[in-house]
Amino acid sequence: MRRITRIATVGIASAALALSATACGGKKSSDSTASSSESAGSSSKSAAIAYDIGGRGDQSFNDAAFAGLEKAEKDLKVKGAEAEPTEGESEADKVQRLTELARKGNNPVIGVGFAYAPAIKKVAEKFPKTTFGLIDDTSVTAPNIANLVFNEEQGSYLAGVAAAKASKTGTVGFIGGVEVPLIKKFEAGFTQGVKDTNPNAKVLSAYLTQPPDFSGFAKPDLGKATAKGQLDGGADVIYSAAGLAGSGAIEATANAGKWAIGVDSDQYNQAGLSKYKDKILTSVTKDVPDAVYNLIKSVEDGKPQTGEIRYGLDKNGVGLADSNPAYKQMAEITAAVEKAKADIIAKKITVKTAP
Length: 355
What we know:
Layout: E1 2-3, H1 15-23, H2 37-40, E2 46-50, H3 61-76, E3 79-83, H4 91-103, E4 109-111, H5 117-126, E5 132-135, E6 145-150, H6 152-166, E7 171-178, H7 181-197, E8 202-209, H8 220-232, E9 237-241, H9 245-255, E10 259-264, E11 280-286, H10 288-300, E12 307-311, E13 318-320, H11 325-328, H12 331-345
């Protein structure tokens, strides 16, 4: 595994999380640079991902993408390359990162997160024989761009059902990393699920930063402080869609003896969160690993995916994890979640995508 650049140091909420992030470090390599844009697309035996804010080790979104790359390395025998973001980087930095990955012959090159949309638009034009994957965004299209998107609101609705059923106070919390349309999908689905289950329930919603400041995805301390505020406000179940910052929210919630709901990855099984796993009721999962793997495999098979590729409940592209044995024993909750899932798939429930 090749890591091209290193992420700037970010304060971690706990020593355990810091150790986990450190343990995820990879090896560097001095691969030769392809001689031209045309030759860059000639090799399909190496694939690359460029991480979103927080980088690998976030126990969430970026780690999910890495899992897909890792599976491709094992099953497809491709070489994997990774590139980390830097704190406060410019659009030019993203363009340079993607360009470097493409020039080195990686195919596909995958941008993890909507923030890569403008950069992928520019770089994809220069490397027409290279397939580019863009996760969580459909605003940029081209014959060599695959838009890997998810119905996050559907999984979040199920989390809302579970939260409303699990809450004893009737107050639950939602924490978003940055107030952008994508994260508001999480909030919308969650709030609708809570209210459809318990119309009298109260949902406390908070965002850590506002665009153009996207650092809210990488601030565990801020996630922790925000969760404490919601706990003080009576919340006894808190759902965070905040990347690395969500780790801080989980820590605060678990230490208070209340339920946390994770996001993107099954956070009950994340090593860096093992200290808090007993209080991670469930997680809203996005099948980012399969999305990444499937794109890489499509290139390997000579039939690259292109255009919008959507993952929803109907394809198990989003869902609610049941790894915590305590959750499995909550028959009333699991039954309500399964009914809601069936109703969404049957289109008896239409989940909102904005609050």
